[in-house]
Design a protein that fits this description.
Layout lengths: L7 H7 L3 H7 L27 E3 L7 H13 L2 E5 L5 H16 L2 H4 L11 E4 L13 E8 L16 H26 L6 H6 L4 E9 L9 E6 L5 E6 L6 E5 L2 E4 L7 E5 L1 H6 L9 E4 L6 E9 L27 H12 L10
Parallel strand pairs: 1-2
Antiparallel strand pairs: 2-10, 3-4, 4-5, 5-12, 6-11, 7-10, 7-12, 8-9, 8-11
Helix pairs in contact: 3-6, 4-6
The chain binds N-oxalylglycine (OGA) and nickel (II) ion.
Nickel (II) ion (NI) binds next to loops.
Length: 350
Amino acid sequence: MAEEPLSAAKLELASKTVQQLIIDGKLPERYFYKGSDKGTLDASFPLLDLLIVDVSLLDTSRDELQKLKSALSSCGCFLAINHGMKAEYLDKVRGITKKFFAFPKEVKQKYTREVHSIEGYGNDMVLSEHRTLDWLDRLYLTLSPKDKRKLEYWPEFPQDFRETLEYYTKKVEGLIEILLKAMARSLELEDNSFLIQYGDEAIMTSRFNLYPPCPKPDRVIGCKPHADGSAITILLQDKEVEGLQFLKDDQWFTAPIVPEALLVNIGDQIEIMSNGIFKSPMHRVVTNPTRERISVAVFGIPQPEQEIKPVAGLFDETRPKLYKKVTNYVDIYFKYYYQLGRRPIEAVII
Ligand code: OGA
Ligand code: NI
């Protein structure tokens, strides 16, 4: 009798964390990447020439604002320095991330996500039989609004995990507000033009990523190419191990590491609000044969019922509106990205 194909739910139940696969010495077929990305996966890629933006100057310096605008309208990302968090503090955030993933599975099990639910600890979600899985384990937590937190998934080990994350949440929230205002000013708009759509009850989520060393870095991808569905993403990169790459002029470039900097990229929702002036960049993560890599991404996401649309002043007869207004973009995002494997923003192009 022919074997029935396993449903995605059953595959989910049967699947393991990447850390566990390594212990078991297994590399399931589902991890072999079938994408037709430019170039191979493990070759060395040129470094991306990222602009460095001094956040403390954005209020007073036209040059710094110009730099911000130029970065976001070319590659959609930049390195932020003087962002209000000390280098030692960023190390602490990296530290709690590494320590959490380093605990034995019995300790982490308590925080394991439910099948087909994103919140909590686990491997890449298996949503379709056909999609290549990412070579990473992650801990996904909602940070704000506070009443949306699911504290049962917030690690109690290492002991300073929760308080460190609490403080990080507050600081990143402040940083996002400063950046959204500066982004509007850089386009000669009122300070609040993006913030009004972003909302004062925006959702912030965090994704702690662990990319374990991979035995087949030329065949397996850490994180498949995607643009973020957020409005804005603040990424704390590993201090030593590169892996993140951005697509620019149809070529992959490796994001450089600057330990005291945060990597900021805009997501699709700011691309929509800016009527395409700011670009939500395609990016991916490649794996490393010998070294593990961590990263912490914080996504700033407007509430689902919030209408997202091009800001007045950024379209006219000569520059038509490029995007339809949209609510609940994250839903569209997951449908397109996970189920169809396409760029979600295509769904709202006029
Ligand atoms: C993401 C992402 C990059 C990284 O989580 O959306 O792109 O370096 N992460 O882990
Ligand atoms: Ni991303």
